[in-house]
Amino acid sequence: MKALQSSKDVNLQITEPPIVQGIESNEIIIINDIDGNLILPGTLEDISREVVNGKSLIITAQEDLNQIGISWVLPVELNEKANNTKVCVKVINEFTKQFENNKCFATLRNYFKTVPKNSTISVIEADDSSPLLALGNRGKGNVVYYGILDEQSDFKTQTSYPIFWNELLNFLAETGDINNYNFKIYEKPLLDKVGVYDNGNKIAVNLLDEYESDIAKETIVLDETGFVSGISEEKVVINLDLYLIIFAILIMLFEIFYIKVRGDL
Question: Which of 219, 217, 197 is nearest to 206 (CA)?
């Protein structure tokens, strides 16, 4: 919950059984840490119907997940629990690419042994190949099983944890990659004027320089010697005649004054 609330891209609405609201108005539905006794008849069917029509559903593992009557919605089959495993990425995609250089990124003390159902993709697995994150389809929508029990794992303490959740939700919401909209003008000859183009996706064209506009970069220190193109020498003739004449007159006046004081004049 905190990871999702910290994301500027996520508008999180929290609702608790038995009264479940927002099923129709949200793109992604997350079932997390619920009391199976409080789920009203028909609630899971309503959620499943929304997924079939195109929404995405994430079901997170909890200690009694196999007892709350939700197994039929899962993209995996739940078996008995097992102990102590590494958490390793098997498929690198948009929401697991941060683990490409460290595929076994966490440890897990307890987990459910699982088997993927038909057409389910196992993205993250335990040591025994049990899917810990599986992605399946239901009609037009997606169903994700998140089998990492957060209270049993060190994953939640990592800086990659909120990034993972943000990327997963962006993937399910099909927001697209910003690199598909960020390119040089000359790479797209048809986009040759400043403005906003709309060909199904709005693209803004401007003449801003990304580096020049970065106000967070380090201050540029200017070296004044960099503005000096070179050192040149030039001979200058100074006329001292006027200064010598003035000096001679002052000496003459001083001499007259001295003779007068002495009484010879």
Answer: 197
